[in-house]
Amino acid sequence: MSSKTPVRVDGRELVLSNLGKVLYPEVGFTKAEVIDYYSRVAPVLIPHLEGRPLTVKRYPNGVDGKYFFEKNAPSHVPDWLRRVTVPVPGSSMNRDTIDFAVIEDLPSLVYYANLAALELHVPQWRVTEDGEAIDPDTLVFDLDPGPPATIVECCQVALMLREVLAADGLTARPKTSGNKGMQLYAAWDGRQEPSAYAKDLARLLEKEAPKLVVSVMARKARPGKVFIDWSQNNPAKTTVAPYSLRARQRPTVSTPLLWSEVEACERPDDLVFTSADVLARVEEHGDLFT
């Protein structure tokens, strides 16, 4: 039987459901704890969601159950939660437009956490107040290790990328994916098409370090190497947001890093952070991704 709990969040009325449901069975992490984490990390998370059309991965029966990606805002979304209608040419679902949600306040974030939207994904562009898409403001490199490579090798590639980006006047910011890899971000100035720029850099590093780096998506090319996924800059693609939970066995988080942590990484476990770890890091460092 569903249990419902009315709450008031920053002046908005919400009804939370099944707060005791365990969403991470291995550690007994419940929906209430998911909502609590997102509520507490909101001050540093929301600025990275503002203005960005939201895609979520929902796990209504926990991380061991079936999940689904959701781009369209559900029909029952409250009228105070911001939505924008964005053209999606070439959609795999044969849609001309999608009505995206945009999370810009705590009630909206809590609403989605209550839907068991464990993972929050956003594109590298924002929309205007009127919902018009703006040119990308962020460049991203998704570093994906092919076993037996791990995040340790990703850190080596990240340091190489940092140097190349700095030479081009771009300041790189690292974060874990919360899964097995990591991402590198930089503010983007629109000097050229971002996917083309990112692809050129990936190919450059592949040429410089062919035993470590691969720039092509073919799985057979990736064992023991780090795939620099430059295609995440395609406007149709999204990347997991900083401070988002991931649907792993434990509630790991896509966590912004200090460069000193990247430089010192020797074991994969060095850069695994759970929700509790991240809240402590935010308390100590603030938002490392500003």
Automatic annotation (TrEMBL):
Domain DNA ligase D polymerase: 30-289
Alphabetized UniProt keyword annotations: Ligase
Single GO MF descriptor: DNA ligase (ATP) activity
Keyword Ligase on entry: yes
Pfam families reported for this sequence: LigD_Prim-Pol
UniProt EC number: 6.5.1.1
Protein name according to UniProt: Bifunctional non-homologous end joining protein LigD
Organism field: Nonomuraea endophytica
